[in-house]
Records
---
Amino acid sequence: FVVDPAGPGNTFRVRNGATDVYNFGPTNYYQRPDDRYVLGAFSHYQLADWAEAYVDVMYMDDRSTYQIAPGGIFAGTFSINCANPLLSAQQRGLMTATAASGGGTCASNPAGTFTGIVSRRNVEGGGRQGTTEHQQYRYVVGMRGDISENWNYDAYLQYGRVSFSQVQTGFFRTTAIQNALNVVTSPTTGQPVCASVLNGSDTACVPYNIFQLGGVTREALDYLETPSSQLGNLYERIANVSIGGNLTDYGLKSPWAEDGVGVSFGAEYRRETLDFAADFVAASGALNGAGGASPPVNGSYDVYDLFGEARIPLIQDMPFARSLTFETAYRFSDYSSIGTTHTYKLAGDWEPVEDVRVRASYQRAVRAPHVLELFSPQNVVLDGTQDPCAGLAATDPLVARCAQAFGLTTAQVLAIEENPANQYNGLTGGNPNLDPETSDTYSVGIVYQPSFLPGLNVSVDWFDIKVKDYISGIGADLIINNCVETLDPFYCGLVNRDAQGSIFLSPQGYVVDTTLNTGSLRTSGVDFNAGYRTDLDRFGLNDMGGISLSFVGTWLDKLEIQSLPDSDPFDCTGLYGTICSVSGGLSSPNPEWRHKARLTWNTPFTYGDWLTSLGLSVQWRHFNKVTLDAYDEHPQLFNPGLQYETDRVLGARDYFDLTATWTMKDTVNFRLGVNNVFDKDPPVNGSSNCPTGPCNGNTWPQVYDAFGRYIFLGLTADF
């Protein structure tokens, strides 16, 4: 039921799930205010011919304020006493008392208790706000110098720290909600009062009158709204020493090359430490609508590295081999958390003639799990964006599959409520038994620098990258969709429904999506780069300055995600949606082609010390269209429940930007520009296909310009 705005103000009518939904978008800050301060200091001192001491200090402070939609009572199970004096007679007649309290309606059983799902936005209190601050410190102390003509060294100690703090307001405390809904008539004043005030368990309680239009008071909000804070620190300590040089003096060089073998080798120690703690309210999960509890995290690991690399000129200045060079590198790492790892590289560079260079490489890389992935406590939080079994009609063929998948009756499936905000619970958290990710990267490219057109540089590079033992969650949406599609006991066993059959109404309903070594992520494609710089005198435009052009583009051939080692991979190239923009560490649409091109005119205009240089540039940004993943034929993506025609395609976008830069007295640099000159709107899609986080305001701000035309002015001064 909902309070009927057409009635006398304190009556219920039956809730219409299609229309009685809060529009949470307009209250959110679309762009957050941000203040950032950066300080850097560098010094060096020559102690001797072979020793230079140096110190680097960096500091950054960043503060930002966000606002999201009002909090309140997020759909959960609460109890309301039938004798609540804030209820009208009509409302009592519609509310059912629990069997344990005598059954019947609240009108016929005033001593009974209604227990059910209660949900209401705090529209009177406004949006929830939070202020986030990051402070970063970095100190480096080292010494470097030349050991001999062909050898040098560098040794340093580094300490880094990132501090995080956040204060948020506007959230209700869950226990306070329950107390404020349990209202009785005071025997002394005859006025509504919280039962907890009379029994002494919470004397600060103020009744929360959600049963009457205009019934919410500021005093009630002051009682319910509970600020919270959280603090965290990430520490990094590094000790590194490296030696580099040339082996020519030792006779180690190719007989067909003039230059000797260049090498570098060294050792490093690194320690990573994280500590994070929220106040009791947030850590215990008492903030209603905060997405779950914020338990403390504390952990660290050490790693010892030995590394070396070599560059070996094989052939120089010979026919069809102006230069042929081989490169190799190796690193041995010993982690206290995961054991030992090995990484290495093999690469070649061939310049048959002066204008052309061909390059190829193979690299094995390893990523060890970080502290959060290892040590975060497992916790129920907001994770998924869909429940294919929620809000179904009786004629929907999914009803039978959902009943079979989760052992429910048809009536129980039809009673599963859909979350209007498309937010569902997941059990997430770290895993101390993780193995490292390993990746294999293959690349082949060609660079063309024609001698007949100085200033032109063109390169084309093919890449193929595969990450195995990928560290991630499988993805709540992928898990539940695979369960319903395949009825696989593994996936279905990860879905825990609460007593209402829901995975969002209570912490007892969730999808297990903890961190583990999943399947793999593979991507391949071609990168295109081109640049050209010249004076306009070459074209007969004397004293007109010079121009520079740059172009960077990527053709995405493949973007495959394999959720588990034995599962069938699916390709997200050219797709977006709740799986292809979220699973496998992805966080945005994946257009098949994107590019950025810029033309800059470095004008000859000057005016004494007040204008020593002036540059004008235009930039073109392009993103190909993307299609909703729910329309893809792959069984892990195909989802008729999300196939809204308005969401089928996000059209291609072209943005044009203008920028002017000018320098005054050679030390002060100004920037003035307009991004998205033609005020092109971003493509939008419905909330069902707009997962919270990467999608905001029904679009994808990591790819598309969400604000339309954007004007900026900047200043940099050197002292």
Note: The mean pLDDT is 93.
---
Amino acid sequence: MEDNNKIQWKVEGMDCATCALTINKYLDKEGAKEIKVNFATGDVSFSINPTQSVEHISKGLEDLGYKVVNEAAHSHAHGHSHTESKTGFLKNNAQRFWFCLPFTLVLMLHMIPAMHHSWIMQPHIQLILVLPVYIVGMSFFGVSAWKSIRNGMPNMNVLIALGATAAFVYSLYGLITGQHEYIFFETTATVITLVFLGNYIEDKTVENTQSQLKKLAETQVVMANMIAYDNEHNEHIFPVESNTLRTGDLILIKSGEQVPADCKILWGEAYVNESIITGESTPVKRGYKEKLIGGSVLTDGTVKAQVTAVGDATVLSGIIHMVKEAQGEKPPVQQMADKISAVFIPIVLGIAALTLIINWMVLKDFTPSLMRAIAVLVIACPCAMGLATPAAIAVGLGRGARNGILFRNATSLENFKNITQVVFDKTGTLTTGNFTITGYQAIQEHISEDDFKRLVYSLEKYSNHPIAKAIVQAWKTNNEIRWQKVEEIKGEGMRATDKEGNEYQAGSYKIAAHFTNDDAHNIYVLKNGTLIGYIDVADELRPEAKDVINYFKSKNIKTILLSGDKQSKAVQIGAILGIDEVIAEKTPEEKLQIIAAKNAETPTAMVGDGINDAPALAKATIGISMSDATQIAMQTAQVVLMNHGLKNLPMALGLGKHTYKTIVGNLFWAFSYNIIAIPVAAFGLLTPQIGALVMAFSDVVLGINSSRLLVKKVV
């Protein structure tokens, strides 16, 4: 549960979006840092220092009315609404609503003229009917309200408990004194029942906004064909659940089956649909020693593979965890709503008290004055303000994840709205990163062609650069040189020392500038400060690069190429793609300075490979990494485009902007609703029953508006 003082909990009892704010405020008061509360899933994470007591914080949350449950017990339910884990009688809002509804419907029969003189109108009968509803309501709203007041953090349930109790006590007074015109037991029952309905609708709304994440999560546990061998080395295949697999297990995956876990192919080849990760439904070919991502589907072919990662270590788990973490983040636009929500309950209580007093003074009648005050309490809905941002973010992040776009935090979603320029790295970003060797030469006579290849292979095998990987693949040998020392110098290349003390280098023109004026080659090789050869490679532009650049031009967003490559090559690529500005021959340190300067001028996004460009990506307003799925854990960028998905960059920008618009729309509705609804209730233009119904459906509007993001055209 604890890793470097990082706590990750599953917390039950968050039945309103304002609960997340309450938990956040409590943890902040206790000195916790990096607090993320995901109302949608019940996930809570934060950091504490070693002197703080985890047990004390857990006890404090329980005093607030929430329950910290064992994370392991919920590992099977990734992405599911926290409400699903509540089993037992009257343990969730749906059960409470259906329990209360029959009693409330019978109490409402007096509204039918023919029933005016029926036995149901008897005050004692009404009391008997309302008691089960009131007891269930108070066991939930009342207990929650009392705990929140006791801890100095009043929540929405204070309003509901106070409104229902006021109607109940007033009716009880009317029953005892024989003043039957003061009896409003049906108001008590209706308020409680309809608020349970509202909470149930909110649960379903949140659950629906999680649908994209659920689709990812549901692929995690499938049946797998495990391979085992007996003492005679005979092969046996038997079915097991994928969550029982361990790293190193051998599995058989047949055509049409889902890949049960991250694995590496040992035999066979197949076409694989990786849309669950990349959003791209076109099958890709995978063969010997290539990796398969758990959750993808074999469309054709059969393979035997070895499991490389299980559980939380898999790519899919990493994606789900990242999205859930991001959902717990609060973008800047939410801060205003949080500040208002924090003082909302006391303000509403004050307005309700004023409504009662002023109406009583004007109307000279306590009964309608009380009903108006109760209507104010019931119709006020801080839930809408609390749900406005999480609902939109859940949909935006979920749609992004389904299309191979991963946002590390909610802030990056919002920041897209300000981006006015995009900086592109060249290699592996605008180009495919699939290099081929077009020429090479060993210029020292005593070095044979084979020795030159062996030397370069031995150096470049320690590099992650795409050019190095291409050379290693082409010139692989088992007779490599064993170095005494080897290191990669960012922006220059590889340097190594052999056992005899000779120093070798392989890198860009920068390391050879003192020895030659010929800067037309990609890799230069030196021995003890002497040039001994060079290598030429070719890279191809991504077919979608031109369309992506044109998209940004159509949106009046400036495009910049920032490369470590030679000026002539960078200018050539810039001209082909129509890029506005080209900056070349820069080291990672210089790239960092350039991004810092660009960022100071105007909000800037940078797209890079996430390895050499890590510092610059971190410095940009939004760092966007072009990454292979299996490298996701290593990225420092705020946004990751899976499987080199440059084509998804316009969607990432569009999703960011439209998610922000949706959040603003939701908050506008939430504030407008309260600004209009509270005065309407205070002036007696609606009853507490109608108020409860309107409040119940206020979240539906937010849910519908947020769900539009699932199908909305964003590019």
Note: The mean pLDDT is 81.
